[in-house]
Amino acid sequence: MSRLGDRLFAAGCARLVASESEAMRGWRRWLAHRARGVIVELGAGTGANLPFYQADALERLVLVEPSPAMRRRLAAPAAALGAEVVDGTAERLPLADASADCVLATLVLCSVPDPEAALAEARRVLRPGGRLLLLEHVRASDPRTARRQDLVEPVWRRLAQGCHPNRDTARAVRDAGFRIVEEHPVPVELPDLGLFPHVALVAERP
């Protein structure tokens, strides 16, 4: 992506976050309140989750973000929380093995180029018993809706900066060796014909 495209995308994301429903913010809060200790957030974007972390539960908060424009927007709110902003991708995290208590991502795994590699990296950096906390839109459980997702995926992916509406994230999490301990449907207020079902997941690394 060009520098101009990066800046425009970051600005668009910031506007989307500002217009999010209270229900979606509530689910961000629900997820962030489960984060403790050393926390790594993947694709932190413009900082939509930062207001919901509990400062007294943070030992260290590492915000991984590959976009320069996003990192610039993150700098001030991250500094206010004492968080670190690092240049990196979900597939190659700049952290040591078994160094984190939680890995958190919201609306990220739909667009990473290699979600299997990202989940393998999350498992690598998590300590045994560490938690993977996800809020994602996923493949529909209804076969007819899933087929519609497959049909729109090529066009949607190009329009939405690599977002795949049909990824079976819960299955990928299990295949990566995690144990899902909570899985909740997340209602969304979008005129999307049901093409973007969301879930909140809490999984543990064995």
Describe this structure in words.
This protein has 206 residues and is an alpha/beta fold. It has one domain: Rossmann fold (3-Layer(aba) Sandwich). It contains 6 helices and 7 strands. It has helices at 3-18, 22-32, 68-81, 115-125, 143-159, 169-175, and strands at residues 37-42, 58-64, 84-86, 100-106, 126-137, 179-186, 198-204. It has a 7-stranded mixed sheet, sandwiched between helices. Strand 2, helix 3 and strand 3 (84-86) form a beta-alpha-beta unit. Helix 1 (3-18) crosses helix 3. It is globular. It starts with a helix and ends with a strand. The model has no long low-confidence stretch (mean pLDDT 91).
Notable traits:
alpha/beta; 7-stranded mixed beta sheet; 7 strands; 206 residues; 37% helix; Rossmann fold
Q: How much of the polypeptide forms β-strand, as a percent range?
A: 15-25%
Largest sheet: 7 strands, mixed
Low-confidence stretches: none
Task: Examine the coordinates and then state which fold CATH places here, giving the name of the CATH topology.
Answer: Rossmann fold
Please report the first level of CATH classification, the CATH class.
Alpha Beta
Strand neighbour order, sheet with most strands: 3-2-1-4-5-7-6
Shape: globular
